[in-house]
Design brief:
620 residues; mainly alpha; two-stranded antiparallel sheet; 32 helices; flat
């Protein structure tokens, strides 16, 4: 089957079309579409039956529950899927031990670090150390790890028939074979299988087997993989949908890049302890939690920021202790000085906004206030602590407010108080929320009402959201289908709308990366945008169409769609209503019909894929 090209121009044109209403944000939506619209904005997409369930419960009661997720019993299916993902619950020290980076493997091999005590982790480390020593013995002539043949021949581990199943067997055959292997034999298979085969077997393996397959060559990659799986499982299966939407929103607002050094081990705790508990709480608490979390301190380098005179004081201390180098001189202290990275992003991206009224002098003063906020050892301990020796004790003036000399850790906390309660912060956060939930260019009057609520409620996030949702603009023609889904929103909503069962979410994570949104891997501190301009182009829309077709036709490993859900007839209108909850446009129906005419074998699943790649589905 050839890949569809016909819909791409139509999608690009329709996705950018504006409503012709004179003042669309003052034109209310018909009552019958309000619930569907609300679900599109406040969840990762409606599942079959969700609209009727909310109508039966009542919109106000449903919204109250979502704003207070502790009132909602979480999905048992979600809890079962999260349980095997051990990395998302571990502290950093345990993560490093369980999923050691190359530096740790080298340290153990060279006798500079102890062997882990846990039997399973110890066995893995012993294999990794043996491999490291083997590589060191012939490092000059050895090819890169990816190109190397396994040390154990695969034919020494499995029979000819088992090898046939591993290479060309059905999904059920592969799953049965892996389930039949005892622990010792599976370990040998994981060691012997080529890299491509290991990747291909992941979708058929049990959760514990997946972890071992991924950990064979690069154990630390398990952490990022499990983070991605957990976010997708939560987006797809959680009953606390608004909490998941807001957790994703705030992670991008306070973005940390997973692949920067120690953040590979710090990000799980950052999302778990700093973002999620405060996603529907007070903004001031969220701001503090992110500011002092080691993941943020490491990402934006504040852990290395010290007062200007700290180096001189350290040098004098070393002289008093007689700590001289081989030449009899006092060595220079390893000091980097004042670092303004976090201070700048704190004001520009986290609170005031780029036009929030601060100056370069304010950036420097804020950076001085945060000296001493550091990490004990980002590569082993990874906990926050305040080092008073590194703190700038002088007087500071931030946005016209004087912070007296002689302070300590509280200097930075005063800065957070000033920023959290500043009118520019209220407006900046309100506008960003309105952009995510209402429109890329939200009405200024709406933003001002939300900002007013932010100020009057002392930054109460549910109160601000409630003010937005209760506004006429939220349920207006101007907001209806005005947003384009991000790749995460598109993939999660597609899986939810089809009722697909996800047994292994990593392939969906790979699809996200292909669509331009590898989770936790936005290198810039801006995080991923919710604006259509950052996601709408012909290449991206074609990639979305290809994903939609692959999903509907069961070509994504680990994801199973029941084709009977689409009915027995390849009817674009009926399937469109099933998946979107409304009638798709005549233009899209015509485009799908034209594509169907080109195909020899038209199935309901093919039509479902075309619908999910259509403008109606790309909008929310």
């Amino acid at each position: 089957m050839t890949r569809p090209r016909l819909l791409v121009p139509a999608i690009a044109i329709l996705a950018l079309a504006a409503t012709a209403a004179k003042d669309p944000f003052q034109v209310p939506l018909p009552a019958e579409v309000k619930i569907a619209h609300g679900l599109e904005r406040l969840t990762f997409g409606a599942r079959p039956g969700d609209v009727e369930a909310v109508r039966k419960l009542g919109w106000k009661r449903w919204l109250d529950q979502q704003l207070h997720p502790e009132k909602i019993q979480e999905s048992a299916a979600l809890e079962a899927k999260l349980k095997p993902l051990d990395a998302i619950a571990m502290p950093q020290a345990e993560l490093i031990s369980r999923y050691p980076p190359p530096q740790m493997i080298r340290a153990v091999a060279e006798g500079r670090a102890p062997m882990p005590r846990d039997p399973q982790t110890k066995a893995m480390m012993e294999r990794l150390v043996e491999r490291y020593k083997t590589r060191q013995a012939g490092a000059e002539a050895e090819p890169p790890m990816e190109a190397r043949e396994p040390r154990i021949p695969l034919t020494d581990v499995v029979s000819k028939e088992e090898l046939r199943v591993l290479r060309n067997g059905s999904d059920d055959e592969k799953k049965a074979l892996l389930a039949s292997l005892d622990e010792s034999r599976f370990e040998k298979l994981a060691e012997a299988a080529p890299r491509g085969m290991r990747a291909q077997l992941l979708a058929h393996a049990a959760p514990e087997q997946r972890r071992r397959l991924m950990a064979v060559n690069a154990p630390q990659q398990v952490i990022g993989a499990q983070l991605t799986e957990a976010k997708l499982y939560r987006a797809i299966y959680s009953e606390r949908q608004l909490l998941e939407v807001m957790s994703d929103f705030w992670y991008n607002h306070f973005n940390v890049f997973l692949d920067k050094g120690a953040d590979r081990f710090l990000v799980p705790a950052y999302e778990r302890d700093a973002i999620r508990p405060h996603a529907l709480g007070k903004f001031r608490d969220l701001l503090q939690a992110t500011a002092q979390h080691p993941a943020m301190l490491f990402y934006l380098d504040n852990w290395q920021s010290v007062s200007a005179d700290f180096g001189k004081r350290a040098e004098r201390m070393m002289a008093r202790r007689g700590q001289l180098n081989a030449n009899g001189k006092v060595p220079k202290a390893p000091v980097r000085g004042l670092n303004e990275n976090y201070a700048r992003e704190l004001m520009e991206l986290h609170t005031l906004g780029v036009d929030g009224g601060y100056t370069q002098k304010d950036v420097t003063e804020v950076a001085r206030c945060f000296t001493g906020w550091t990490i004990r050892d980002p590569r082993t301990d990874g906990t926050f602590f305040y080092d008073d020796r590194r703190h700038d004790k002088g007087e500071k003036v931030v946005l016209g407010v004087t912070i007296p000399a002689g302070g300590g850790k509280e200097d930075a906390e005063k800065v957070l108080d000033i920023l959290a309660r500043h009118p520019s912060t209220a407006k900046f956060v309100a506008r960003k929320l309105a952009q995510r939930f209402v429109a890329d260019q939200p009405p200024p009057a709406l933003v001002e009402r939300m900002a007013k609520t932010f100020r009057e409620s002392d930054g109460d996030i549910p109160a601000v959201l409630k003010a937005m949702i209760d506004s006429p603009e939220f349920f207006s023609q101007g907001a209806h289908r005005a947003k384009i889904k991000t790749p995460l929103e598109m993939i999660a909503s597609a899986v939810r709308s089809t009722g697909a069962e996800v047994s292994f979410a990593a392939p969906l994570g790979q699809q996200l990366a292909q669509l331009g949104q590898p989770l936790y891997r936005k290198q810039e501190p801006t995080g991923y945008s919710s604006l259509a301009a950052d996601w709408v182009n012909s290449a991206a829309l074609l990639s979305r169409m290809n994903f939609a077709l692959a999903l509907a036709q069961n070509r994504i490993p680990g994801v199973k769609v029941d084709p009977s859900r689409f009915g027995s007839e390849a009817d674009p209108k009926a399937i469109g209503r099933l998946l979107t909850g409304r009638d798709i446009s005549e233009q899209t129906q015509a485009a799908i019909q034209a594509k169907m005419a080109e195909q020899k074998d038209v199935t309901p699943a093919l039509v479902a894929g075309l619908v999910m790649g259509s403008p109606e589905f790309q909008r929310r």
